[in-house]
UniProtKB/TrEMBL annotation, chains A, B:
InterPro entries: ATP_grasp_subdomain_1, PEP-util_enz_mobile_dom, PEP_util_AS, PEP_util_C, Phosphohistidine_dom_sf, PPDK_AMP/ATP-bd, Pyruvate_phosphate_dikinase, Pyrv/PenolPyrv_kinase-like_dom. Residues 418-498 form the PEP-utilising enzyme mobile domain. PANTHER family: PHOSPHOENOLPYRUVATE DIKINASE-RELATED (PTHR22931), PYRUVATE, PHOSPHATE DIKINASE 1, CHLOROPLASTIC (PTHR22931:SF9). Its EC number is 2.7.9.1. Residues 57-289, 298-354 form the Pyruvate phosphate dikinase AMP/ATP-binding domain. Mg(2+) binds at E739, D763. One of its GO terms (molecular function) is metal ion binding. Its cofactor is Mg(2+). NCBIfam families: PRK05878.1, pyru_phos_dikin. Substrate binds at R556, R612, E739, G760, T761, N762, D763. It comes from candidate division WOR-3 bacterium. This is Pyruvate, phosphate dikinase. Belongs to the PEP-utilizing enzyme family.
Length: 871, 871
């Protein structure tokens, strides 16, 4: 027997199946699969993609294939009792492309092939709708002339426009059947090549589909998605069915479960005596699917049976298109149904409980983005609005509020109404106002700028780097494209998309559903990575623990110093002229820090808490502008000139690379001493309360072993003294941030002393790329647009570059200390792609902001499951 | 025969030789070696260091060794005709430690051992100098009691002080022989343990020497210099000789060549009828060695013969101590003579020409520091002064001048007198004034701060990070430790040492000697590394070429923009609102840049010239302060508010990591276009003049291949267009700086497009360490003091950290492009230790500031010769 190239489907048997996707393409294989399931699909056949490249090269099909195609057409005529080109009961078919994977770059569908001047009369008779039939015919002519014969569409459009002018109407819909008849007559002049012979039409269409594999759009699409050139496309030829042939006909779309809520019930719409296009066009209002039960009970019953079968077979919610022609149900297409995040989660959990899928599959079906969506308010998608400006989506969720430009105003105004803080950028001074605001919008800064980091920490929506808005603080307005927005004007921001809207949009409130909690519990069983949180206060830690955090990976002690009552003591410390003065001020800070740590330890009872010693340069705690300096000088009782000298002497050209982190702790050992004392005293005191504490003290900005040794010596000395004083023994670790390239490079040396590593990948990205996160807004958008970088490296870890340093540090660190505990506490700890990398290179945990903990739990499970699949 | 532990020397035969340094120590081996050469050394013996650890453990010598020592003493008595403890003609010896390498941490010498109450009379008789003899005796008692018996020195000092009070005198020298007699009497009360038996004295001293191996100072010294604990020290016992026994006695020090000039003639001093100490004490004025010829012609003749022999044997200038006792010449010590840089070079070249050493040896004997010293004025070392402050030695040499605080004042005042520019830090605005000043002194900044880099480029002395000086610009003064220095006051700065002096010190002017040029030519034959220079102008390039530069490794185009007539156009470009405006301004810059390039190409005829496209962020070209902004706004004819907005919008939190380098070239392609055009037009035009040009266009701050591709595309397009227009074909390369960690990591990718690499190790150190060079003055001094870092990583490349990235980039780059040309153009290109590393990892060239080119040539030769030795 010769090799076969044409595969029939429909009519209760199929030559192919889902397994033959390689040669039948996705669509062809699916039609065969449905046939095999006993689902009534309009019969047709698929021409193998193996012929595609050969056709492109030779411009014709082998003779044996032509014979196969003709045979397949005869089969369709037999099955349907219609004939190709018949003026009374014509066989009409659609011709579609269909590659192994869906490729939007390829040819559109040609419908109603088989219509000609004679057979169009048969369609008129069958549907009783002259206008419809002639519209179908003229579309076939236009489409065919365009894709097969290469005659420009515009010429046909000109004829239609001319007719509309003659009739004084505006839309196609206003043209009558007679008008279309006239238009088709005029089409003949330019579309002379349009063949009246249906078989000739068919051969032309098949050739056009094969050739569409090489359109520039398709080639570009394959290049981007890395699809092999030699796959080719298959061609699907399928009998047309009509839902507009009378009262026993209908057409509709139905989901096997509710795609909005996930509820297990059939959900969909249909239109009686109508064609599929009518549903899309929205001219008639469709009826709920339940009504079909009453109108066409047999067809409904069969539909329900088929839906059940399809869902069970495909093991997922199906989105099914159907047509009922003269009481006979045809399934035109089934595909996986799109759904909301909430529905996706409910469906996955329900299906796993029903035994339809495994728990592993349920976990893998939910994306981290689904979980993210669930945790933030969203703009109700039913409202279509154009944004006034766009920026970087720094922290997801949506918020509505009145514009304010100063943190103080946020506090004042925020008492009476919701506010959005709009600034060029935010700083530590603004945190009070940020706590009150619903969300933040900044004109500068990148994904890890101050505003972005604080927003994600607080779980509030935030847009940064929104270049288009120009703020005038004095006038209390911002302008965008010439329009002016005043303080107090209401705006809506969408931090998920990075879009700013005028006025108040309706929001959908978030909810962590019961099913989501179930799903995450299942996910927990599959993951190897632990998930910790970055939290600086007891309440933050509490939120994170409720979200499933298994410890704190980063507690930033300096955030504690920015509070109103503390910054005073901090500033005294900085301004002090000698060690004695500094120690006196530090003594005031000690009890406050201790209380903070105690609150955190209590919440995290039994779980490890990583506390980082002072990180930012000291000038961050002082005012910069003259007015601020004068006010502070009055407060402190010193001369403002003197204070200005101090502020100036602390100023740095590049604070990111300046006198900070362990460099401070080394030059001012009394700061590290105070912090170590506060941590260990807190640990001793809560231990006496019965709390189980596991403090991990972390030294930041280490670039060299000797720096770490210097700081560890201080910590250990103070810890031993303190424990002795309390008579309590605590297990504590002293480790380091790896956030400087040289630390990763010399990790083997650092690990001789460090008991754990935590990657600060924000700073490692800054130094490794030479990118200041506060300044990249000037060029990063351009880089992303021109694809100079595939993504923002502060959002998703740059694996070839920064990832190399991370992996090098892990290898070298563990060469020295085999069981070195290693985590990541940069912003990437909450990014799924980065989490997968962390899993792969063997980290012990990731740490992220509280609101990303559920996402990280799921992403960690995915990473583990996928790496098992690969093995 | 039993193993021997005591090795005799002197008396015309020695048991050891220079080869036995391991057990005899350096001093013992040298004394044996001189004996073997027939040089008259006072006879003595060395006790092997093999006994040292055993002695420390057991507290005594083996009996067999005691017997050997006694035998050796008997030999000395025979040779000298004196007897241990003899009241008429006593044998006196010295006892010294002597390990395999010189260890300043160990015991001082004990002299005149063998003196006691009886034999001291013999010494009085022999020298006829009661005071001298008794002084020798009391010193022996004090020293012995201290190091052998552990009696505090202070007790003896108290007795001497008491005597001085009784006599109403102030200095030891004012005490008479009778006074010393009385003092020795009083010493007996506390120094009862001092043995009268010379053999007992000797055994005590030998034990003390062995034990001195384990003093805390010696242990610390070994730890620092990594000297093994188990080496131990040997003990040298040697007959004392006396140069003060009458008119036929003398003592002196002599060099085989002039240590100041290198001239080949005996150079030295002596004192007739005197002891070595008298020369050191400076009480009597020594005579020139030539006079000895007249006074003691036989001894002089023998001395000259011996000096010749010693220099030939040791193949280097010798610094020889001698004593003539009763007409008999004794050589007490010979060692390699210390010399000035100028002398060192002349001596090496002369000796090679004489055939005494090879040219290779001559090259290896000169250190890069010698060459450096030659190229800069120095403070005449005869003036002893205390510095008023110290900072980082940023650029070598010394300068004297009046203090000025502003660049403009430097220009004004500099017309009439030499000035030193003193500032907190310098910036591009100050360059005009810096050109006029003799040197710079800044209170802030590190070794690669603006002042430091400019100073090295200009070859002027500079001190940076001199924290101690507090500048008050308003009052035009600086204060240091409470003392105030006014504008116009004269200071002297020593940039080689980093020291600031009050007033005018005498300087020695530099000179590149004929011999130095010869030596460097020899060095050139041995090196593999090429040496290029960093030069931005024709005159700089000319200086460098005269110093032997083989091309330009870094021409910073932006330095050309800071000139008064150009910054205007540059500012117009920055302030322009759109591409058109920017292009208009760039058109003005193009002819200026072109002329600069032409001047450089002409100077570098036949040699490669690497030109870097715009590197610094644009805000560096704009004023920062309000007054400057207002002035510029007036000049530009725009509103100062508007200009302030532009300045603010360009401001960056961390300019080092900001919108600069290729990031500018990518967002403003017209800048790269203009620069490429200026380079290629210049190249075409000088080619037509007959100049051979080899331009290498270098893209800065690349972190990712796509950035480089973007810029290369522009350069190649413009180059091709331009060459076509001129009808000239030029060989040019397009390459990149590797100055960002990610560039080194992804060097394999970047090398697919880059035709050469040049390491910008300044910036690579900044990013790799996370150190801002402008800000490190706050902690680096502390780091160096506490040995947290072994050296300033901006001065000498950090090999374990930054070196790893450099080597990684070389390996990965050459994996892709086997013959990739790779150089270094960071400040490290002029640092010998870093040059050795560059040689080792296979770089093609180093590039440094013009004044360091000779140093780099020598260092490159050393690297090649040493690596051959190792192989």
């Amino acid at each position: 027997m010769a090799k076969r190239y044409v595969y029939n489907f429909g009519g209760k048997r199929a030559d192919g199946s889902a397994k033959k996707k390689d040669i039948l393409g996705g669509k062809g294989a699916n039609l065969a699969e449905m046939t095999n399931l006993g689902v009534p699909v309009p019969p047709g056949f698929t021409i193998s993609s193996e012929l595609c490249l050969d056709y492109i090269r030779r411009g014709r099909l082998p003779k044996s294939v032509l014979a196969e195609v003709k045979k397949a057409i005869r089969r369709l005529e037999r099955l349907t009792g219609r004939r190709f080109g018949d003026p009374e009961n014509p066989l009409l078919v659609s011709v579609r492309s269909g590659a192994r994977v869906s490729m939007p770059g390829m040819m559109d569908t040609i419908l109603n092939l088989g219509l000609n001047d004679r057979s169009v009369k048969g369609l008129i008779a069958k549907t009783g709708d002259k206008r419809f039939a002639l519209d179908c015919y003229r579309r076939l002519i236009q489409m065919y002339c365009d894709v097969v014969l290469g005659i420009p569409r515009s010429k046909f459009e000109a004829i239609i426009d001319a007719r509309k002018k003659e009739k004084g109407v505006k839309f196609d819909i206003d043209l009558s059947g007679d008008d279309w008849e006239e238009i088709i007559r005029r089409f003949r002049r330019i579309g002379q090549g349009f063949p009246q012979d249906p078989e000739e039409q068919l051969m032309g269409a098949i050739g056009a589909v094969f050739k569409s594999w090489n359109t520039p759009r398709a080639i570009e699409y394959r290049r981007i998605y890395d699809i092999p050139e030699d796959w080719g496309t298959a061609v699907n030829v399928q009998t047309m069915v009509f839902g507009n042939t009378g009262p026993k006909s209908a057409t509709g779309v139905v989901f096997t479960r509710d795609p909005a809520t996930g509820e297990k019930k059939i959900y969909g719409e249909f239109l009686p005596n109508a064609q599929g296009e009518d549903v899309v066009a929205g001219i008639r209002t469709p009826q709920k699917i339940d009504d079909l039960k009453r109108i066409l009970p047999d067809a409904y019953k069969e539909l329900v049976k088929i839906l059940k079968k399809l869902e069970r077979h495909y093991r997922d919610v199906q989105d099914v298109e159907f047509t009922i022609e003269e009481g006979k149900l045809w399934i035109l297409q089934t595909r996986v149904g799109k759904r909301t995040a909430r529905a996706a989660i409910k469906i996955a959990v329900d299906m796993a409980k029903e035994g339809l899928i495994t728990k592993k599959e349920a976990v893998l079906r939910i994306t981290p983005q689904d979980i993210d969506q669930l945790l933030h308010p969203m703009i109700d998608p039913s409202q279509k609005r154009t944004p006034i400006a766009s920026g970087l989506p720094a922290s997801p969720g949506a918020a509505v509020g009145a514009i304010v430009f100063e943190a103080e105003d946020a506090i004042k105004l925020g008492r009476s109404r919701p506010v959005i803080l709009v600034r060029d950028e935010t700083s530590a001074d603004d945190v009070g106002g940020m706590k009150v605001a619903q969300g933040f919008l900044t004109a500068r800064g990148g994904m890890t700028s101050h505003a972005a980091v604080v927003a994600r920490g607080m779980g509030k929506p935030c847009i940064v780097g929104c270049d288009a808005i120009k703020i005038d603080y004095k006038k209390r307005v911002f302008s965008v494209d010439g329009r002016v927005f005043h303080e107090g004007d209401v705006i809506t921001i969408d931090g998920t998309e990075g879009k700013v809207f005028e006025g108040r949009l309706k929001l959908i409130e978030p909810r962590m559903t019961k099913e989501a909690q179930t799903l995450l519990k299942w996910a927990d069983r599959f993951r190897r990575l632990k998930v910790r949180t970055n939290a600086d206060t007891g309440p933050d830690a509490k939120v994170a623990r409720e979200f499933g955090a298994e410890g704190i990976g980063l507690c930033r002690t300096e955030h504690m110093f920015f509070a109103k009552d503390r910054i005073q003591a901090m500033r005294e410390m900085i301004i002090a002229k000698d060690e004695k003065g500094r120690k006196r001020a530090l003594e005031k800070l000690l009890p406050m820090q201790k209380e903070d740590f105690k609150a955190i330890f209590r919440v995290m009872d039994g779980l490890p808490v990583t506390i980082r010693t002072l990180d930012p340069p000291l000038h961050e705690f002082l005012p910069r502008e003259r007015e601020g300096i004068e006010a502070l000088a009055r407060e402190m009782g010193i001369k403002s000139d003197e204070l200005e000298l101090i502020v100036n002497s602390l100023a740095e050209a590049n604070p990111m690379l300046g006198h900070r982190g362990c460099r401070l702790g080394i030059t001012y050992p009394e700061i590290t001493e105070m912090q170590a004392r506060a941590i260990i005293e807190a640990a001793c005191e809560v231990t006496k309360e019965g709390v189980k504490v596991l403090p991990e003290i972390m030294i930041p900005v280490v670039a060299e072993l000797n720096e770490f040794k210097n700081q560890k010596e201080i910590v250990v000395r103070i810890a031993e003294e303190t424990m002795k004083r309390y008579g309590v023994r605590i297990r504590y670790l002293v480790g380091t941030m790896i956030e400087i390239p040289r630390a990763a490079i010399t990790a083997d040396q650092i690990a001789t002393e460090a008991e754990f590593f935590s990657y600060g990948t924000n700073d490692l990205t800054q130094t490794g790329f030479g990118f200041s996160r506060d300044d990249i807004a000037k060029f990063l958008p351009y880089y992303l647009e021109r694809k100079i970088l595939p993504h923002d490296p502060f959002q998703s870890l740059d694996i070839p570059g920064i990832g190399f340093l991370v992996e090098l540090g892990v290898k070298r660190g563990r060469k020295t200390r085999r069981n070195l505990k290693i985590g990541i506490c940069g912003e990437h700890g909450g990014d799924p792609r980065s989490i997968e990398f962390c899993h792969r290179i063997g980290l012990d945990y990731v740490s992220c902001s509280p609101y990303r903990v559920p996402i990280a739990r799921l992403a960690a499970a995915h990473a583990a499951l996928r790496s098992r699949q690969r093995r």
